[in-house]
Amino acid sequence: MPITEFLGLQATHNPHRWILPVEQRLCTPGDFLFGGAALAAGIEAMEQTTGRQTIWATAQYLSFARRPATIDIDVEVPVSGNSVSQARAIAHVHDKEIIAVNAALGGRPSDQGGIWAECPDAPAPETCPVVTIPAEHQANIHHNVEKRLVRGKFGFFDFGEPSDDGRLIFWCKFPGMEMSAATLAIIADFMPSGVGNVLQRRAGGNSLDNTIRIVAVEPSEWVLCDVHIHAIARGFGHGRIHLWSQSKKLLATANQSVIVRIHE
C-alpha cells in the first residue's frame, strides 16, 4: 500500500496544496492526529511537490487536529537548486496552524559513504513477544502497526520490564505498507514510549518537535527501533531513535522533545 493511500493524502488542482482528512486510523487514543502521521503527510506532500527525496525534515507541533477535521497542507519551495530543494509545509485547519514542517530534499551522486552507528543485537521479530494493545486502542494508529518487544518497557502500554540503560528496543511492522520517508516518520514517532521505560511507569509524551534524517529508503518487512531517552527535566523528555532494517542497514535517525505524560 502506498503511504498516500494509508494517510488519505489528497492532491488538489493547486500543485502546492494537499488535503488530509483526520480519520481514526491516524489518531492517538486521545482522538487527535498522531504527530508522526502529521509529519509523514508533510514529508509526502513536499516529496510529491518537488519530485525529490527527503534528506531531513523537522516538525514543530503547534496545536491539535481532532477528528473529523480536514487539514489543508500548503507547500512552499523557497529554494530549488541543482541537487537540493529547501521546502516547508504548513498544515492548518481553517486559520489555525497545526504543524510546520521544514525540510531539505534532493540527492547528489557520490561514491563515499558508510554507517558508523551500531545496530543492536536483536532476536528475529517472529521470536519476540507481541506488544499487547488494550481493547480501547484497537481502532487508532497503534492498531495499524505491529510491535514486538526486544528489550525494555513499551511505556505507553506498560508492556515489558524496564531496562537498566534507558534503552527501549522493539521491532515495528506496517503490514503491506511500502517503505518511504513518510513511513519511517510514523514509526519514529513511537519514541515517546521510551519515557515509560526510564520512569518505570506507564508513561509517554506529546511531541513538541520531531526531526528525522533519512539515510536510506529500502524494503524491509520489519524495522528495528532503538530508543534512547537522554534526559527528563522540568516535565519534558529528550531522546532519539535509530531505525534499522532487518539486514542491519540504518534507515533513519530521529530525535525529539516531548511533554511527559503519566497515564496511570
Number of helices: 4
Strand content bin: 35-45%
Q: State the CATH superfamily name of the largest domain.
A: Acyl-CoA thioesterase, double hotdog domain
Biggest sheet descriptor: 13 strands, antiparallel
Number of structurally distinct domains? 2
What is the overall shape?
globular
Poorly predicted runs of 5 or more residues: none
Radius of gyration: 18 Å
- Overall pLDDT confidence: 96
By CATH reckoning, the class of the largest domain would read Mainly Beta
Instruction: Quickly give the structural class.
Output: mainly beta
Level-2 CATH architecture of the largest domain: Beta Barrel
Please give the number of β-strands: 15
Give the end-to-end Cα distance, rounded to a whole number of Å.
36 Å
Oligomer: single chain
**SSE ordering:** HEEHEEEEEEEEHHEEEEE
Structural features:
264 residues; mainly beta; Porin; 2 domains; 13-stranded antiparallel β-sheet; two-stranded antiparallel sheet; 4 helices
What's the SSE blueprint?
Elements: H1 3-7, E1 10-11, E2 17-21, H2 35-50, E3 54-61, E4 70-80, E5 84-93, E6 96-106, E7 146-151, E8 153-154, E9 159-160, E10 167-173, H3 181-188, H4 193-199, E11 203-207, E12 209-214, E13 223-233, E14 236-244, E15 250-262
Antiparallel strand pairs: 1-2, 2-4, 3-6, 3-12, 4-5, 5-6, 7-10, 8-9, 10-13, 11-15, 12-15, 13-14, 14-15
